[in-house]
Here is the input.
Amino acid sequence: MHQKSNYLLLTPGPLSTAQSVREAMLQDWCTWDDDYNIGIVQNIRARLVALATKNEEAYTSVLMQGSGTYAIEAALTGMAPKNSKLLILSNGVYGDRMAEIARYAGLNHAVLAFEQTETPSVTETERFLQQHADVTRLAFVHCETTSGILNPLAELCAVAKKYGKTVIVDAMSSFGGIPFDMEEHGIDFMVSSANKCIEGVPGFGFIIARCDLMALCKGNSTSLSLDMYSQWETMEKQPGKWRYTSPTHTVRAFKQALDELDAEGGIDARYERYKQNRQMLCEGMKNLGYKALIADELQSPIISSFEYPSENFPFRDFYSHLKQSGFVIYPGKISKKETFRIGTIGQVFPEDIRRLLEVIALYRYQNIK
Ligand SMILES: *Cc1c(COP(=O)(O)O)cnc(C)c1O
Here is the structure.
């Protein structure tokens, strides 16, 4: 049974997935049985840690039901010490969302906001940490999917470590697609989800954290269902057990997605493919007269923003034209400029980008006529 895809998703997620990943969902699982808890959940937890760092002993992982935001909220609201000050850096919607979570939860926090087309300033961050000794934690987004900009992970982690701060990274749209080692950078908590660069289907997020810091988090959460520590403790004590109904089919599909990642050659190989996609897209778009929003040296291989080529650019019409040809793109999310976005992650290959560029070239031709 081969189900042909309706269209290729060139979006920030959920993404186009492999046939094998979707097929892995065609079975039902008992959440009490070892086949599921040990064979699938524990397997996934260990493999996530191994993908995140070479020092597997020092790190642990916990899976949380819901989309990525739920896992971010679980991490931010579940950390210790409970009411110590959190500094959030923001240069886009996802940084702003962390601030919103902090506001909703009444967390003691501060926000340093930057332009959406620029990376957070390391110097300003350092100055803030120098002037506010009460800050104990620093949170920021690795790849800001709002624009596609890649924030300076190593530099921001280094400055946080210099002042002894705990580091929380939203690596939702980069983990699995861009190589980095949590321990090398000194990342203490990292959050991502099933349906981004690991190329699973949506339904859960996960937190990878230093074991010693996770162990301090008991009793901090103000939310029952999002209690990161309780979920982790349950998964540890009754190996692989989720506290409440887990998204079994999604979890099984995720295990398949991890197998596919291994078969591709791991994160390094996937990073190369995404980079190729992105490079081909950006060169092609430039040749067709579309200007990239983000400077080349700051651009991630995950998703790219392009400015409208003219003020009255008919985006909806452009979108429909691409959709008819089998490609779905994404509207922009930048507040100061009209843009649209094209993702280069998921089961997307240079050959797909070549075909996409042909379709876009045709649209341009039709529009000029
Ligand atoms: C996708 C994404 C999220 C989570 O979004 P959900 O819609 O809750 O899955 C968070 N941060 C970043 C950077 C993302 O790309």
